[in-house]
Amino acid sequence: MPPTDACYTPAAEPPWETVEAGAAGFDAGRLEEAIRFHCAHETSWPRSMYLPDGRYIGTADIGDREEHAEVIGPVRPRNAPNGLILSGGRIVAEWGDTRAPDMTFSIAKSYLGLLAGLAVADGLVADLDEPVAETVKTDWFRAPQNAPITWRHLLQQTSEWSGTLWGKPDAADHNRVVGGAEPAPGAKGEVRAMKAPGDHFEYNDVRVNLLAACLTHRFGRPLPDVLKDRVMEPIGATTDWEWHGYRNAFVERGGTRVGSVSGGGHWGGGMFIASRDHARMGLLVARDGCWGDCRVLPEGWVRAMLTPSPRNNQYGLMWWLNAGPEVRYPTATPASVFALGAGVNLIWIAPELDLVAVFRWIARDQVGAFIGKVRAAVIGP
C-alpha cells in the first residue's frame, strides 16, 4: 500500500475526509465486492431482537438456561448491515447507515478497557496486580474465593469471582467457551468447581459487569460520563451514543446511588452506538491512544491492553488479539486486534495496513471470509 498521512485526524462530525480506493492502495472493484458480500451475508438475528417464540436473541443465541435468561436492561431493534473502512484515518469505503446508534453487545467490554487505563492514570487503580478489595470496600470481595482477585484478573477474564451481581449468578456463564478458551467440563450454565483467581479464562458477563461496577466505585460517577468527558468528546464523537445498565444496577457512593453499566447486551443494556463513533475509537487505539496532538489514553496503556494474557493468548485486557497458535481470524493480518460483539459487531484494527474497519450485523461464520475479501482488495504487500 502507498504511504498514508498518519497525521490526519478527523474533525468532529459531520466533516470526515474521504479518499478514493486507488489512492489509498485498494482495488476499487474488489473493495466493492467485499461490501456486497457483507450485505449478502446478514446475520440471522431477527431485527426485532426477539425470536418468534418471544425469546430475546441475546440470551437464546448463547444458550442461557431459562432461570438465567430474564432481560433486565433495555433492548432495541437493530439496523441493517453497515460499516466503514478507514485508511490513514480517512474513509475509503462506507455502506449502510453508519450514523444510526445500534446495540453493540460485547464491544462495550473494550470501552471498559479504555476506562481502566484512565483509572490507572488517575491513581484510582494503583497497580493492576493489586487486589480490588484494597480499594473497593464492598461485600463483593469478602469471600475467601474472591479476596485475592486483582484488577488484571477482571480485565483478562480470569478472576473466577463467585457470587451474584444484579440478580445474575456467575454460574450463568460457567462453561461458556469463547475464542481460545479451554474445553468446558460441562454444559453452559452448569455449576462447576472454581479455580484460583488467575488460573482459568472464562468469558463471563457477570464478572465483566463486576469490573464495570468496580470502576464506577473508583470513579465515583457514571462511567458514560467519564467516557464522554475523557474519550468521546476529545475524539470528536457524536452525542448520540448511550451506555445502559440494568434496572437494578446501582453502586452506593457516599450515600448516593450511581448507575452501573453493563459490559454488553447479554441481558439487555450495554452500548447503543453508531459505526462512525466506533471507527473513531478504533482509530484512537490504532494511534496508541493519541488524537492529533492530544494524548487521550495514558502512554503505554494501549500496549498493555493488547498484550496476550497467560491463560488465553487471543485475549488482552478486554480486547481480542490475532495471536497464535490458533489465531482467531486467519484471514486478518498477524498484528490485527479486535473489539468484538455478538451479532456480529466488529471493530478491526490492522496496523500493518494502517486500516481500521467497523462492520455490523454480519453472519458469524462469514466474518473471516469478509476480512479476507477486504485484504484481497489491498494492492501490494
UniProtKB/TrEMBL annotation:
<protein>
    <submittedName>
        <fullName>Serine hydrolase</fullName>
    </submittedName>
</protein>
<dbReference type="InterPro" id="IPR012338">
    <property type="entry name" value="Beta-lactam/transpept-like"/>
</dbReference>
<feature type="domain" description="Beta-lactamase-related">
    <location>
        <begin position="104"/>
        <end position="359"/>
    </location>
</feature>
<dbReference type="InterPro" id="IPR001466">
    <property type="entry name" value="Beta-lactam-related"/>
</dbReference>
<dbReference type="GO" id="GO:0016787">
    <property type="term" value="F:hydrolase activity"/>
</dbReference>
<keyword id="KW-0378">Hydrolase</keyword>
<dbReference type="Pfam" id="PF00144">
    <property type="entry name" value="Beta-lactamase"/>
</dbReference>
<dbReference type="InterPro" id="IPR050789">
    <property type="entry name" value="Diverse_Enzym_Activities"/>
</dbReference>
